[in-house]
Amino acid sequence: MSDKEIKNKIKVFAPATVANVSCGFDILGFALSNPGDEVTLQRIPDGKGNVNISGISGDGGRLPKEVDENTAGVAVKLYLKNTGISDSVEISIAKQMPLGSGMGSSAASAVAAVAACEALFDAGMPLIDQLKIAMEGERKACGTAHADNVAPALYGGFTLIRSYQPLDVVRLPVPEKLYCVLINPDVEVRTQSAREILKQKVSLQDAVIQTGNVAGLISALYSEDYELLSRSLQDVLVEPIRKILIPVYDKMKYTALENGALGYGISGSGPSMFALCEGRESAEKIVKPLNEVLDNVGISGKIYVSQVNQDGPVVKE
Ligand SMILES: Nc1ncnc2c1ncn2[C@@H]1O[C@H](COP(=O)(O)OP(=O)(O)OP(=O)(O)O)[C@@H](O)[C@H]1O
Ligand SMILES: N[C@@H](CCO)C(=O)O
């Protein structure tokens, strides 16, 4: 018998994430310290391998309780299938962020679920295989198995998806003084719709600008060069199209940069936006002016100030 304590119930937190990070569409992302989702799993050793969602809170009744429709359900089912575990599992989800927010809401549930499975069953599944499972949750939520939310939520920190086929994830360093301000206006944008409006072809000239910025951003993370980071936070491919879905985007961006942010962009597929700043003081300085811009147009919203979360999912109890 293993000397590890066998648990029958476990609760795991997985963080919200900022995907794309301006120039890195579908390849870059980082995790936030808060908010995040909590998923609790109860193991039932009946040899039936059934998966059931017994409760969801914080979603206003909007999330599917059907296992095959919910990213957490998809992840648990696939984990049991891939490991050959025959216990049944009851899932309960505490949503702590809005849906369709661009904060990696669907990814946080999938990652919390797969990490909770691994903590509960201890099958020794490599992170890359856990990631593939969480990506199937994303496929269910928005039609594509993009990994730039699930990878940072699972690995923690800043991640690069170097390749999708084969899947190749690189953890990037996080400069010590890097802070994120995440602005979540009370507007909903579904990832699937925000992907459908994108152009499928880009010009060579834009590709050159974008790859230069990605390379600059990655170099800046390694060298902790905040000025290079600032120059590199530019997106010529996606932001010009998607910003029309976000009220007062240009004004918000102008205000953040005027008040000292290093860069400003759309978080994931929006409507959330993020600013990166050097130091907590600089991050806190932009909160009030950004709130004023939202107030002036009568849009409510929430603003979070957070360091990059290096931990990934955390077992709560
Ligand atoms: N556990 C879950 N949490 C959140 N959304 C889920 C979950 N399970 C299924 N979904 C579905 O996923 C869709 C929301 O995913 P979507 O990718 O649009 O939002 P998001 O994850 O907040 O955005 P983004 O990926 O841009 O950060 C909704 O249709 C929702 O019903
Ligand atoms: N890279 C994805 C992230 C979605 O959160 C997109 O921009 O569609």
TrEMBL record:
Please tell me where ATP binds in this chain: 98-108
Q: What does this protein do, in the record's words?
A: Catalyzes the ATP-dependent phosphorylation of L-homoserine to L-homoserine phosphate.
Q: Which residues form the GHMP kinase C-terminal domain?
A: 217-295
Q: Which UniProt keywords apply?
A: Amino-acid biosynthesis, ATP-binding, Cytoplasm, Kinase, Nucleotide-binding, Threonine biosynthesis, Transferase
State the pathway, as annotated in the record: Amino-acid biosynthesis; L-threonine biosynthesis; L-threonine from L-aspartate: step 4/5
Q: Which NCBIfam families match?
A: PRK01212.1-4 (NF002288), thrB (TIGR00191)
Q: What is the lineage of its organism?
A: Bacteria, Pseudomonadati, Bacteroidota, Cytophagia, Cytophagales
Compartmental location? Cytoplasm
EC identifiers of the protein: 2.7.1.39
State the encoding gene.
thrB
The cross-references to Pfam families, in alphabetical order and at most eight, read: GHMP_kinases_C, GHMP_kinases_N
The text of the family note is: Belongs to the GHMP kinase family. Homoserine kinase subfamily.
Q: What is this protein called?
A: Homoserine kinase
Q: Where is the GHMP kinase N-terminal domain?
A: 73-157
List the molecular function annotations (GO) for this entry: homoserine kinase activity
Signal peptide start-end? none
Q: What is its main location?
A: cytoplasm
Superkingdom of origin: Bacteria
